């Protein structure tokens, strides 16, 4: 997806010289007008050098000045500037906070409208349409920017609410939501799924000897090892404290045990010992947690550093 956004960025920059090139081809400048084009080329190039984050702020005002110049030069074809004016408002919306973008947008809309009417000598048919369209284009652009901002805020808080800040893994609530989705799939006739609960052996000693900072590094290392050891589609979550959980969609008992054993070996490569309890969903999420938890404690009782599969529902 990142490559697609880079392509969009390149296309956006290619559009500007293409539009100016068409303008020069159909309406060649006369005399000293060439100097203005060289000046705008310099300003646009300067904006490009600022990088994706800062470029809109530099480019917006250079583009506004260029549009004013084209209105003055092209009194007989106002629609050419009308095509490009939304780009000015979009750049302002990306470059500034909403209140400032609104103020600057109103300023540029007023300048473009007033200059267009002045150049035409009054509210003639094409220029009147041009002037009246500017506040509408500005309003639509800022509404789009506001929706984008709200979406970003919702996404930010949703991710914070469902992510463990220490490890970056989904948290307990996120895992519960994922388990509910998997249970609903099973009820619709989908394949079973398994849950692995994992507890680190000797984590208290790590905290006692190295302090909480070392304990945090230890947990982050465990999280990376678990993520690298699961299959595509599996979900690793921070359950709490030194406990982790792994959701294995579409997985029966035998394969779930194999995945858990592989995770145990992956952790051993990092110098980490863990006990793992495995249970397969059998129609009740509470029972799934209970059986996985009991299997985990049985693994610890048997000597730690091992995997124990919970018996089917109804058998203890």
From TrEMBL:
<keyword id="KW-1133">Transmembrane helix</keyword>
<keyword id="KW-0812">Transmembrane</keyword>
<dbReference type="InterPro" id="IPR043128">
    <property type="entry name" value="Rev_trsase/Diguanyl_cyclase"/>
</dbReference>
<protein>
    <submittedName>
        <fullName>GGDEF domain protein</fullName>
    </submittedName>
</protein>
<dbReference type="InterPro" id="IPR029787">
    <property type="entry name" value="Nucleotide_cyclase"/>
</dbReference>
<feature type="domain" description="GGDEF">
    <location>
        <begin position="191"/>
        <end position="312"/>
    </location>
</feature>
<feature type="transmembrane region" description="Helical">
    <location>
        <begin position="7"/>
        <end position="28"/>
    </location>
</feature>
<dbReference type="InterPro" id="IPR050469">
    <property type="entry name" value="Diguanylate_Cyclase"/>
</dbReference>
<feature type="transmembrane region" description="Helical">
    <location>
        <begin position="127"/>
        <end position="145"/>
    </location>
</feature>
<dbReference type="Pfam" id="PF00990">
    <property type="entry name" value="GGDEF"/>
</dbReference>
<keyword id="KW-0472">Membrane</keyword>
<dbReference type="InterPro" id="IPR000160">
    <property type="entry name" value="GGDEF_dom"/>
</dbReference>
<feature type="transmembrane region" description="Helical">
    <location>
        <begin position="34"/>
        <end position="51"/>
    </location>
</feature>
<dbReference type="GO" id="GO:0052621">
    <property type="term" value="F:diguanylate cyclase activity"/>
</dbReference>
């Amino acid at each position: 997806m990142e490559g697609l956004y880079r392509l969009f960025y390149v296309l956006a920059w290619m559009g500007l010289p293409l539009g100016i090139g068409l303008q020069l081809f159909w309406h060649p400048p006369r005399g000293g007008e060439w100097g203005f084009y060289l000046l705008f080329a310099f300003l646009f190039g300067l904006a490009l050098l600022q990088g994706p984050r800062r470029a809109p702020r530099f480019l917006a005002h250079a583009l506004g000045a260029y549009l004013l110049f084209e209105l003055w030069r092209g009194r007989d074809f106002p629609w050419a500037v009308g095509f490009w004016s939304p780009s000015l408002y979009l750049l302002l919306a990306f470059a500034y906070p909403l209140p400032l973008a609104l103020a600057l947008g109103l300023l540029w809309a007023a300048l473009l409208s007033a200059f267009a009417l002045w150049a035409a000598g009054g509210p003639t048919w094409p220029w009147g349409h041009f002037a009246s369209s500017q506040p509408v284009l500005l309003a639509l652009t800022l509404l789009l920017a506001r929706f984008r901002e709200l979406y970003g805020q919702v996404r930010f808080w949703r991710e914070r609410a469902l992510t463990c800040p220490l490890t970056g893994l989904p948290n307990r609530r996120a895992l519960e939501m994922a388990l509910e989705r998997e249970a609903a799939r099973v009820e619709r006739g989908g394949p079973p799924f398994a849950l692995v609960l994992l507890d680190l052996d000797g984590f208290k000693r790590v905290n006692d000897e190295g302090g909480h900072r070392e304990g945090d590094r230890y947990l982050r290392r465990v999280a990376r090892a678990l993520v690298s050891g699961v299959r595509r589609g599996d979900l690793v979550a921070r359950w709490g404290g030194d406990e982790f959980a792994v959701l294995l969609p579409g997985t029966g008992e035998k394969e779930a045990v194999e995945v858990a054993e592989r995770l145990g070996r992956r952790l051993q490569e990092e110098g980490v010992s863990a006990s793992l309890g495995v249970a397969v969903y059998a129609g009740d999420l509470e029972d799934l947690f209970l059986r996985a938890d009991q299997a985990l404690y049985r693994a610890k009782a048997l000597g730690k550093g091992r995997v124990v599969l919970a018996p089917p529902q109804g058998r203890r």
